[in-house]
Amino acid sequence: MNAFSPGEKNLWIALLQTLADDEWVAAHRGSEWLALAPDLEEDLAYSSINQDEMGHAHFYYTLLAELGATDPEHMVFARTVEQWRHACVLEITNGDWAGVVVLRYFYEVFDDIRTEFLMRSPWPPLQDGLRKIRREESYHLEHFTTWFELLANGTRESRHRLQNEIFNIWPKVGDFFSWGELDSSWRDLRLPDLAPKELQRAWEKRIRETLQKADLTWPGSVPSAAVHGRKGRHTNDFKNLLAIMTEVFQSDVTAHW
After folding, report:
1. pLDDT class of 2 with cuts at 50, 70, 90
2. Nearest to 208 by CA among 91, 116, 109
3. How many angstroms separate the first and last alpha carbons of the chain?
């Protein structure tokens, strides 16, 4: 492992926690579609994707432990709502399948961009893990790109639902591009492409091209998030999700599960 200074170590802990928490919450919400997806093939595919995402989260949590954070089990099951740093848009309750497609497509594009930029970090263990993660994530992105195009080019109803969900989710995705405590510390990490404005610019360019290709309405530049999950501020949706997610663990916090 690189010999990080205490300040650098704290920055990496803050950064990796956002990645880990994003992946875990996205996977947990996705797992709620087990046996409810549109067909059996999608049920199997989406379950596999969510298993991958949990594996990616575990990798990030393990790196966090190596940097001095608590162990992965504690990170997932023993933190309070305010200690989580995922984007709030990922915690919203599941609704229409078109909403799942829009949110996961938006998220997969975002995750593809940030992991590409993170590959430029000078930390070999992170680079090694990201090579495997990016191979798996390329299939996730392809999967939800296919679904996005299918709904856009399907029936009038599917296209209508897709556009409605784009408008519904758009005001909430600004939280992707906020890094909480890291927002003013990018020079110290020497990863300028991960600065919030750069991430948003790259993401909006990709999404605008997709919407133009499908002749869907571009909602305009993403507004600032109303709720900042990166700073530990979450909705009641996450409070309910965390209570369910930790129910077994909280029944005996001294046990080894």
Report:
1. low
2. 109
3. 29
